[in-house]
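Take a look at my tokenised protein here and describe the backbone shape.
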Amino acid sequence: MTMLLLAVAGGLGAVSRFLADAFVARHNPFRMPLGTLVINVTGSLLLGLLTGLLSAGSPDSAGASVRAVLGAGFCGGYTTFSTASVETVRLWVAQDRGTGVRYAAATLFGSVGAAALGLWLGALL
């Protein structure tokens, strides 16, 4: 049953990513792929928050299943490291190296910072 829920959550995460990216693309005034950046930062925040919240409970199999379904399933389907990597290289080649490096740094530091914030908030709650 956990595998089925994991697959469904992953699909819902992927659909959520598609919708979020389309929304950001419609409102993006810059020549940067902000949708993927926003998705990875918000997904990292959500995963950190879930991890902080769910780690406080007991390490039983039900808690592990919930963490797997929400973390690996939904958040894994929502976030996209591969697209961020391709967009970094595309910016490097199509615009300039500095733009590619700035985008990669924003993705890395934004995502790690958001995950840390989520863990901290989750532990507080």
Observations:
- The radius of gyration is 16 Å.
- Residues 91 and 100 are 5 Å apart (CA to CA).
